[in-house]
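Ticket #4471: structure export looks truncated?
Reporter: QA, pipeline team
Priority: medium

Steps to reproduce: submit the single chain below to the structure queue and open the exported record.
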Amino acid sequence: MNWYQNLYFGKTAEKKKDEIIKRIESGENHILTYLITLAPTPKNQMEILTPTYYRSHRERSGEPLILGVACGRREAQEVVRTIVEDVYAKTGNALVRQYFEGK
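Actual output as written to the record:
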């Protein structure tokens, strides 16, 4: 799996991050866990995926960079917001894909 070095975590996911990552990497379905990734197409910047969908998706279109992990859809949306805010604070724009791809 292609994990971002400074992975973002939601508040709930942060509390059990080692367990969550271990389960995801072993292929176990971790209920209500979501991965925030760079989108595979330039039209979108990020996607919120279940670990199961990520595994099936990467077989078709490569292994997208995982930027964050969250427990629950709402927490995943908060992680996306945090990522966008961080990129904006660092660059003055919200071009998430360009920032993480180093362009």
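Status: closed, not a bug. The export was complete when the record was re-opened. Leaving a note from the reviewer for reference: The longest strand covers residues 3-9.
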